[in-house]
Each structure stands twice: as C-alpha cells, then as structure tokens.
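Q: Could you fold this chain for me?
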Amino acid sequence: MKKKENNYAFIDSQNLNLSIRSQGWILDYRKFRRYLEDKYSITKAYLFLGYVPQYQDLYTSLQEDGYILIFKPTLKLPDGKVKGNVDAELVLHAMVEYPKYDKALIVTNDGDFYCLVDYLIKQDKLLKLIIPNRKAFSSLFRKLMAHIVFLDNMRDKLGFIKGKHK
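A: Sure. Below is the predicted structure, expressed as structure tokens.
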C-alpha cells in the first residue's frame, strides 16, 4: 500500500494576493487550501504575510481554513504604503521544515526565491512551483517550466464568490 504523501506548501501571500487581483479576480483561500490538499497532498500550508493589526479577523479566518500563518513585522513607508517583505522567513521555514516534508510546493512569482526552488529541484524535494500570473513572473523561472503550475486559468475553480463558499 502506498504511503500518503506529506507535502508542505510555502506561500508568499502578498505576491499571491496582488498577482491574482491584478488579473481582476479574488482568490478564495478556503477553496485554495482544499485544492492544495486534494491535488498535492499538502498537509501543512504556511502562509507568510506582514502583520497589520486591523486585519485580525482575516488572520483568524485563514487559520480556520487550515493555514499556518507566519508573520513579519511591517514598516509604514513615507508614501503611506505598508511593507512586510517575507522572503527570508519563507526560505528559512522551508529549510527548517525540510526534514519533515516529502516535497515542498512554493507559491510565488518572485525571482528572489529562485535559489530555494533550484535547491529543492536538485534535492528532488520540489513538488511544484505555483505561479499566480503567467504574464508576470520572474524570467529566472522560465527554464523551470516543467515544475510550474499557473493559477491564472483557475478563476472558475478558485475564485471568491461573495457570500458563497463551496
């Protein structure tokens, strides 16, 4: 009998959210978590995000949907925007958890993660690289197409419909 896979997801949440929204739709995180579990046997889904106190209800909802939230303190920039760069935290957690998972699934289109993705491929530990937008991702990833899944064609399956969760 085949052993159930124990795969972990490491998700750059700002990158995922902004990339999906730039395409004119909103990701339903509950559906996305179920998709990760059903399609990729994701047992733990780490969501990396900057902490903003007024979004506590959102954080609670994400935890209820099965995500493990890893927060980065945020900085308020002079232009009023909030910045919470999670790159180092995502890479660190992927390596700290490395012995515990069979394969890692990385969700980002940010080339800053190329070294992590490349290392995981060389160790046969990369399950997939999920890129939210096929029209806007780092050219560093173009040579890794065999490992990439795009989300831009999954609006019907993973899009948020106000007042409705399946």
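A (continued): The chain is about 30% helix and 25% strand.
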